[in-house]
Amino acid sequence: MFAALAYKEWLKLRLVFWVPLAAVLVALALALVDFRHVNEMIGPVMLWYDVALLDKVFYSDLRYVFVCVSVWFALFQFVPECTDNRLRLLFHLPVPRRKAVYFMVGVGLICTAVVGLAAVSGLACIVGAFMPVEAVCIAVLTCAPWLLASIPAYLGTVLVVMEPAWPHKFVHGAVTALFVHGLTASSMQGAYEHTIVLYALGCLLWILPIELAAFRVKRGGAW
Asked: Residue 141: which residues within 8 A CB-CB, separation 6 or more?
């Protein structure tokens, strides 16, 4: 039965998966152009000055890309499911409700992670082509909270789409927006070095409401 669920997710995402990947490639291309412009047109000394002394971030276009990627996948997965309460049909399958819903969520998070890791790997290659490994580590650390923000953004979007009650939709949307804003508010290098673990633990708060929302959908109530 999980093979059938996987095939259903494949049908929904097989075409739209490439759009976020294309957006990431555009953001990386812009970062590469900026690095090459400063390094070759102005000089390597100025590149070092910008990065080491001015804390300039040449890859700030990635700041909101991860969040947009996760919202993209969540919408294409759950809007078709929740239109006309089609999600309730899922609960008639011989699969526990919890496992079926979290399987769909897991597929979306894996797609988000694949695109995110491709972006971070590409960024590491770009930075490593111009600067030492220490600068690569700082670049990855700078991107880490932006990538982490994709988790609550994805789960929050799923909750907003899935929830049958509008007050719950509003609360989930508002709390998610505030948390995601906290993770993407700064583009300074290594700004979240000492707090990213706390933010990662905070992302766990979005897991249980998925189960509660699915339960409310199954009951057909709006409380």
From this structure: 189, 190, 192, 193
CA–CA distance, 3 with 21 (Å, rounded to integer): 25
Q: What is the per-residue pLDDT across 50-100, written as a single tens digit (0 to 9) for each?
A: 887 777 888 888 888 999 999 999 999 999 888 877 777 777 777 777 888
Q: What is the pLDDT of residues 164-188, one digit of tens each?
A: 888 889 999 999 999 999 998 877 7
Q: The whole model's pTM is what? A: 0.90
Tokens describing residue 126? 């770009």
Dihedral class, residue 131 (left if φ above 0, else alpha if ψ from -120 to 50, else beta) = beta
The count of other CB atoms within 10 Å of the CB of residue 57 is 22
Angle, alpha carbons 143-144-148 (nearest 5°): 120
The Cα 79–Cα 51 span in angstroms is 42
Q: Please name the residue that has the structure tokens 């409380």.
A: 223
Output the six-digit token pair for 34: 């900026």
Residue 59 has what DSSP assignment?
T
Tokens at 58, concatenated: 């040449």
Structure tokens at 53: 């002394």
pLDDT, mean over the chain: 87
